[in-house]
Amino acid sequence: MLSFIFKVSRFRFWIYTGGTYVVGYALGATLFSDFLRPEYYFYLFYFFFPANIFIYGVNDYWDEETDKLNPKKDEKEHRLQLKERKRLLNIIYLVTGFSLLLMIFQDWGERLIFAGFLILSYFYSAEPLRFKEKPFLDFSSNYLYVMPGIFAYYLVSGNFPSFLLLLGAYCHISAMHIYSAIPDIEYDRASGINTTPVVIGEKPALILTSVFWLVLSAIVISLAQFNPLSFLVLLYPLFPLILLLFPKIEIDTLYWYLPYVNTALGGLLFLALINHNIFNWV
User: Which of 86, 141, 189, 224 is the most buried (most CB within 10 A)?
Assistant: First the structure.
């Protein structure tokens, strides 16, 4: 059972919720004691593990038919078997119940953000909304991955992040979604899923991804007041720009490097924020 849950949670992508939570908390924290609060560690665990069980459990349950043509399910992810559907549904019920229980102990601001995370996570894949099949809503609804960061920021500061931070997060998560959907164009089209890349085509999707990541880069470099380390954010637009300039390079060759870049830059950002907001060593 634990092995099955681990596979469903897609451990390669834990950093996309857990990392966002950690960075959001570091953005809002002002004291070292903020990181000694029990609720920080409690939700750290939640957004690393149960949250991903919920996101990808719902995704696997509703995508059984459309996943049949996608080889990625065998190579990098878990392909749900018919005999596993009931077990998966029980796990989703369990995580949902746990999540709703947490909301009892939250204030109204936390509850609003947390509910937004659950709603986007569920209806990204599930009927009747199923955002993943609606062009432009597919990458916009991917804001679900930003919600843990907003929640963490509010948890520690009692306030919402600034508009520029929210906009930068939207650009990054939109680019991530579009870029990750490009390798699936062939399989999504065959399955009747109209993602943004399916509708607009591979090259326009790469251009749109480049624009989003260039806007993100401008925001990050500006907010960091041109700190030399902030220019590392330009690694992101390099991913689509390389494919546009060198069409012979396969996107699958580059795609699986993104989690490493996200982890490295996210970790660096966390350390920079801790230094700037709390210790001010450098």
Answer: 141
- Kindly report, residue by residue over 1-34, the tens digit of the pLDDT: 777 777 777 877 888 899 999 999 999 999 999 9
Expressed as residue numbers, the domain containing 116 is 2-279
- Compute the CA torsion angle 191, 11, 265, 237 (nearest 10 deg): -10
Predicted TM-score of the model (pTM):
0.91
Q: What gap in Å lies between CA 158 and CA 141, rounded to an integer?
A: 24
pLDDT tens figures, 114-173: 999 999 999 999 999 999 999 999 999 999 999 999 999 999 999 999 999 999 999 999
Residues with Cβ within 8 Å of 249's Cβ and at least 6 positions away in sequence, in order, are 242, 243
Number of domains present in the structure of the chain: 1
What is d(CA 110, CA 231) in angstroms, rounded to the nearest whole number?
33
How far apart, in whole angstroms, are the C-alpha atoms of residue 25 and residue 39? 11
